[in-house]
Amino acid sequence: MKYKTFLLFGAPGAGKGTQGKILGTIPNIYHFACGDVFRNLSIDSDLGRTFISYSSKGSLVPDQPTIQLWRESIEGATKQGRFNPTKDTLVLDGIPRNPSQAEMLKDTLDVRAVFNLSCLDMNKLVERLQRRALRENRLDDANLEVIRQRLATYEHETKPVLDYYGPDLVHTIDSTQSPINVLQDVLKIISGLSA
Ligand code: ADP
Fold it and tell me: Could you tell me the residue range of the domain that residue 131 belongs to?
């Protein structure tokens, strides 16, 4: 059985986490933010250390351990009853992050829509990330050089995921709008999809 899935897509700072957290409060939606799961790993674990070494440079963690961590987290959430695969829709935020991860997940995910939170203004993204660095104490948001590298990683490695899923599934939303207007656009698309 494949999981019914929506993908939240966009550059760092585009607002995936903001929308994901709101959507996750709706009954029968389970929000999974890959970066949050990585940040919750213990610094004493091998994968925790691997995460720090890649994310501090603005690079992606290698695909194999990333997908394995994802599978373990989803299985854990299912066992604990937080995620019910027969009833719930998954909202994935930050995964798949390159076409190879999309390919590794293709037998597991039934992707119904990709919400592409689009922001063409790089300065706005940088500004949002720098503000978040103070609020959320995120090291990778604090350093301008790391921010630039993350945006470059997004352009070169992550953006091609949009072509992987293709124009029928991808819905582009202007993420420079206020969070409530972005949410309105997302909800309009979800309610227009057939069950
Ligand atoms: P943002 O979208 O703002 O960059 P995230 O919290 O989604 O922030 O990700 C933070 C970091 O975690 C990334 O820069 C990357 O190093 C790592 N990461 C998160 N998700 C993945 C993934 N699916 N594959 C590889 N690395 C990931």
Answer: 3-193
* CATH number for 70: 3.40.50.300
126 ligand 1 Cβ < 6 A: no
Indicate whether residue 158 lines ligand 1 (CB < 6 A).
no
Q: How many domains does the chain have?
A: 1
List alpha helices for 137-192, DSSP H.
139-142, 144-153, 160-165, 179-192
Of the candidates 27, 20, 37, the one whose C-alpha atom is nearest the C-alpha of residue 71 is 37
- Judge whether 174 and 186 are in contact, CB under 8 Å: no
Nearest CA among 16, 28, 32 for reference residue 115: 16
Ligand 1 in contact with 5 (CB < 6 A)? no
pLDDT at 138 over 90: no
What is the band of 174 on the pLDDT scale with cuts at 50, 70, 90?
Answer: very high
Distance from the alpha carbon of residue 94 to the mean position of ligand 1, in angstroms: 6
